[in-house]
Amino acid sequence: MVVVVAIAIAVAAALLAYSGIAKPAQESGAAANLSAGDYAPNEPFQLANGTLTNLSAYRGHEVVLWFVATWCSGCAQGNEMLNSSYGAFEKNGVKVIELELYKDLGYSGENIESFVKSFAPQAYSSNVVIPAYASYNMTMAYDRQGYLDIYYLISPNGRILYTNGPLAATLQDLINEVNKTGVV
Amino acid sequence: MFSALTGIRLVLSRKLFAASFAAMSMLIFFAYSLLLQGSSLNLNAPKLMLGLDADALAVSAALGIMLALSISLNAFAMSRSIRSGSRMSVGAAVASVAPVMLCCSTIVPSLLATIGMGASAIISTAGMIQGPLATYEPALIAISLALLALSIYVTSKNIAKSGECCVAKR
Q1: Are strands A150-154 and A160-164 parallel, antiparallel or unpaired?
Q2: What is the three-class DSSP state of A150?
Q3: What is the pLDDT of residue B161?
Q4: pLDDT at A10 > cutoff 70
Q5: β-bridge mates for residue A68, sequence order
Q6: Are A52 and A46 in contact (CB under 8 A)?
Q7: What is the four-CA torsion angle of B107, B109, B110, B112, rounded to 10 degrees?
Q8: Do the Cβ atoms of A74 and B93 come within 8 Å?
Q9: How many CB pairs under 8 A join A and B?
């Protein structure tokens, strides 16, 4: 009987952990480093075409920096949802820079461009989602906890407007923020 | 095979066990339907209901029914001191829940931080734990289904074997 109770507790604990503990932790994860109102660190990152750039190249535009790993199924899910809602970003002139965390957090998956092309083909071809690789410094600056699937909405003058994650679970909140703050 | 079916029939013919099996099936199905929303099984196909595609729905239903049946059979077996396959059921539950829970949530990096790892070490090692869980998630779920099937088979066979003696006592 003890084992049966243990199974029931394990299933209940799994649910609680996933829905009640894991997600809020993820939401607060981004805030543990940087939060709304802070200036976004101008660390370098590499676009999928090999160009080295940084956030200052996007000054004057609102951007979302979204940190993913290409083996992460939740991140793939986020791409699928983004693919069906990319119009909200496009109409507000917001680019989503999807950054593979430094060396995929130590376990390599597919390259970021093919990942984005597979799961968000329309958002990619309409140039709303820009695949890129985060440098070590950028990963440390924005995601030193190593949390997957967190994002920052950055204002045209480089301030963090909003931060949250995972994208699949909070996309509507992000769209609401973009609609509030987006400038075409 | 036949004796296994007899064991299942014997247990589910009891109103209490049949009702708890039905309730647990629903509960576990909904639990897995929440868990599998972010799973690799739930990609690249239109969502049919509960935010799940056909694969994820089928897996949630299979896990719900099989885990509930396994728990019911094990509870019945234990209450009558019959050998059960409860360890396999526990293994199956862990194997089915672990990849989805650990792959993409904050649990692994938080645990690494709790044991004293620094940020630099976490960003270079968290993926070594989470990545394989994500990559092999379908295989782990298949293993958990196989373990559940085995647990159901072993337990129900043992119930059927000892069915006459032990059930008659109650």
Answers
A1: antiparallel
A2: strand
A3: 85
A4: no
A5: A100
A6: yes
A7: 120
A8: no
A9: 157
- pLDDT score of A135: 96
Contact A4 B74 (CB under 8 A): yes
Assign A73 to helix, strand or coil. Answer: helix
Do residues A18 and B35 touch, judged by C-beta distance below 8 A? yes
Rg, Å, chain B Cα set = 19
Which chain B residue lies closest to A146 (C-alpha atoms)?
A: B123
Cα separation, A108 vs B142, in Å, equals: 24
A32 close contact with B: CB closer than 8 A: no
Question: Would you state the pLDDT for residue A24?
Answer: 39
Please judge whether B106 and A145 are an interchain contact, meaning their C-beta atoms are less than 8 angstroms apart.
yes
Check whether A30 has a pLDDT greater than 50.
no
In chain B, which residue's Cα lies nearest the Cα of A169?
A: B38
DSSP letter at A41 equals P
Those residues with Cβ within 8 angstroms of residue B139's Cβ, 6 or more apart along the chain or in another chain? none
Q: Identify which has the larger pLDDT, A41 or A7.
A: A41
Rounded CA-CA distance B135/B58 in Å is: 20
Q: Do A3 and B103 touch (CB under 8 A)?
A: no
**Confidence at residue B2, expressed as pLDDT on a 0 to 100 scale:** 66
> Does residue A101 sit at the B interface (CB-CB below 8 Å)?
yes
pLDDT tens column, A76-129:
999 999 999 999 999 999 999 999 999 999 998 899 999 999 999 999 999 999
pTM, to two decimals:
0.81
Instruction: Work out the average pLDDT over A153-178.
Output: 94
Token code pair at residue B89: 């059921």
Question: Quick one: residue A37, left, alpha or beta (phi over 0 = left, psi -120 to 50 = alpha)?
Answer: left
Predicted complex: ipTM over 0.85: no
CA distance B10 to chain A (A): 19
Give the chain A residue nearest B135 (alpha carbons): A71
Closest listed residue to residue A130, CA positions, set A145, A110, A116, A144:
A116
- Mark the ranges of chain B whose per-residue pLDDT is less than 70: 1-2, 163-170
